[in-house]
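SAMPLE LOG
Freezer: B-3
Tube label: C17
Construct: single chain, 345 aa
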Amino acid sequence: MLQLEHPEHLYALLLLPLLGLFFWAAWTARNRAIGRFGNHSLMEQLMPQVSRYRQYLKFGLLMLAVALLAVGWANPQYGAKLQKYKRKSVDIIIAFDLSQSMLATDITPSRLERARRFGQELVEGLRAERLGMVVFAGSAFLQSPITTDYNAIQLSLRSASPDMIGNQGTAIAEAIELAGESFEDNNKSHKALIIITDGENHEEEALAAAEAAAEEGLILYTVGVGTTEGSFITIRQNGREMYKRDQQGNPVRSRLNEAVLRDIAKAGNGNYFNLSAGSDAVVNALKERIDKMEKRAFEQRSFSEFESSFQWFVGIAILLLVLEFLMPYRSSGKGRNQNLFGENA
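STRUCTURE (predicted):
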């Protein structure tokens, strides 16, 4: 891949037509001055060692040198320069609830939208760490493995929707187990799981999964989305918005289950946070606790820098300027030993 670090410096190439115009004006003035002394063919015989081609050649070398200097000034960069550096971080997986209960509107504009915004702010706040993402409803899926590609996780959060998972429910236990399996095997004490959910969990396995994960060194934090009063779940069916109903036809009211989320966080040696306290407050609280965790060093490779090659252009330009300076205007050989009548002396 070829790129220019300073493409604006290529405007220096505009000097070339100006130099060409100057050369043409000087050459025209020279010919007029010679014409005042006599016929051009006669003057050429009087100056047999003067070569018009040397004039053109010297000017061509000068023009090429200026062009190369302008390109070198723009600093062409080719390829990618591999750089290795070490950084310390905690590996964190964000588990994002995509069950239909997240469509409830007890917080505006909805639980899902507020959770999305919080997730994006959380990723921005944790850019010093390595992040991954799990989405879950009736089952859990690894959306993004542990990475430093924060833009990919942001994109996943923006596009997160209950339609991504066919079977509905709130499989927190499966999300915890999948997250635990997604960390590296040799990472026993530098990892955390942040679960963003309304806590509508109807499985007894969630606490057992949290305790098992804690035994493997995983710290669990839970973030509750919604209110304890709750609201009905608005869904779209056949192009119309309606409330989700149970088997008896009654509208389903979804409530934030803080008790479950507190128990999960406690079993996972972490803390519970309520998003109603404000996104900034929760992000700062999570950052404060994660900053206290032991971090481990890992090697990261970057291909963001390119190899500069301006020195080649500058070097060749200097060589051409030296060659132009040393090249005489007079030709060597033909005409040196001839007299005015074209005879050899």
